[in-house]
Amino acid sequence: MRLSKKILSVVLTAVLVLSLGACGTKANNAGDNNTPGDKTGTTVEDTKADTADTTADNGDNSGKYEVALITDIGTIDDKSFNQGAWEGVEAYAKSNNLTYKYYKPTEKSDDAYLASMDLAVKAGAKIIVCPGYLFEVPVYTAQTKYPEVKFIILDGAPHNGDYNYDIKENTYSIFYAEEEAGFLAGYAIVKDGYKKLGFMGGMAVPAVIRYGYGFIQGADYAAKELGLGKGDVQIQYTYVGNFDATPDNQAKAAAWYNEGTEVIFACGGAVGNSVMKAAETAGKKVIGVDVDQSSESDTVITSSMKNLGKSVSDALESYYSNKFPGGTTATLNASSEGVELPMKTSKFEKFTQADYDAIYDKIVKKEVTIGNDTVAKDAKGVPVENVAVNLVQ
C-alpha cells in the first residue's frame, strides 16, 4: 500500500531511525528499457571507486552491467547482508541472462557510496541494490541525481541526514519483520529442549530490538505449549553497544556460558563471531542472525533469517515485469516468506520440520500475536507469562 509522503515521514521518523545492517520515474515510463540483456557478466569488485573499471567481463566486451549492487564496505562473501543480497542478484540475473556486477566502496562514507553508484550508472546500471541502512542518505541523493535509474534499499529508507524521509518513484524500500524471525528462533530453541537462553544484541536500534522482543515471545509461546512453569525458561538479555568482534564481547559471552547459559542468540553483526568463539570453548550453542550462519561455526544451531535473496530477486522481477513499486516501503514477513529459519542446515534434535511448518502457518494466519519494538520500553516489559528475563548491563 502506498503511503502519503507526510504519513510516511512520520512513521519512518518514529520507528526507523536506524536499522540493522548488518540496509523519479516509474518503471513503465516511455524510454525505460526493461528487456533482459544478451549476456551474463561474471563480476569482481572494483578496487577503487575513482578509477577506471577493470572488471573481468567473461566474454562480454560491452563493459555494460545493467544490474548492480553496492556493498556496505564489506565483501559479497561476508555471510551477512552483502552476501544475502548478492545471492538474490546473481540468481535472478543468471536465470534471466542479465549482465550484473557489484561495487565495493573504498571506505565507509556517504561520498564513497555515491562514488560507487556513479560508477555503476556509468557502466549502464538500470537498477541498483543497496543492502543496509548505511545507504539511506546516499540513496536520498542518488534517487534525484539519477531519476532514470531504479534503487532497491534493504533495511532502510532514504532521508536527508536529518531523518526527513523521501522515497522517490524510482526507489523501493524494503524492511523485514524481525520480531517474527526472532519469534521463530525462540520458539524452536525451547521446543528443542533448551531453557537457559541468552540474547546478546549489538546496539539497541529498532531491528535489533525487534529480533530480541520476538525471541522472548517465541520462547514464552513454546514454554506454554510444553506446560513449563513460570520462570522455567530464563533469558539473559543485553545490548553490548557495538556491532564488532571484540575481546570484551567474547568475554561476556564466555561468562554467560560459564554461568549456565546454553544458547545465545547473537544479534549484532560481528558480535556473533565473538559469541561463536566463546561457544566453541565452552561447548555451547549459538543462534545466528540475518542469514544462514551455519558455515561460520559448528556451534550455530540455527539462524534467525531475513530472506534477503528472495526479496531482492522478487524486487528485480517486479522491475523487469514493469511492476516496480517505486515510491513505497514494504515490510516483508512470514506471509511473504520474508523471514525464516534454515531448517535444512539447523542442528535441532527434537524440533522437526513439521513443528516448524505448523508454527509458521500460525504466524501467517495471524493466530499468534507478536509485538515488535513498540510493545515495551525494555525487554522486561515484553508481555510474557512463563519466561523470566534478566537484563544485564
Give an overview of the whole structure:
With 393 residues, this protein is of the alpha/beta class. The chain has two domains: 5-176, Rossmann fold; 179-305 and 341-391, 3-Layer(aba) Sandwich (Rossmann fold). It has helices at 5-15, 81-95, 110-122, 136-145, 178-191, 206-226, 247-258, 271-282, 308-320, 353-364, and strands at residues 67-70, 100-103, 127-131, 150-154, 171-176, 196-201, 233-239, 263-267, 285-290, 300-306, 328-332, 339-340, 387-391. The longest helix has 21 residues, at 206-226. It is globular, with a radius of gyration of 21 Å. The two termini are 40 Å apart. Residues 1-59 have low confidence and may be disordered.
Identify the notable features of this structure and list them briefly.
393 residues, alpha/beta, Rossmann fold, 7-stranded mixed beta sheet, 6-stranded parallel beta sheet, 10 helices, 34% helix, disordered N terminus
Summarize the structure.
The protein is an alpha/beta fold and 393 residues long. 34% of the residues lie in helices and 17% in strands.
SS class: alpha/beta
Within CATH, the superfamily of the largest domain carries the name Response regulator
Oligomer: single chain
Summed over residues and divided by their number, the pLDDT gives a mean of 87
Main pleated sheet:
7 strands, mixed
Percent of residues in helices comes to 25-40%
Distance between the termini: 40 Å
Strand content: 15-25%
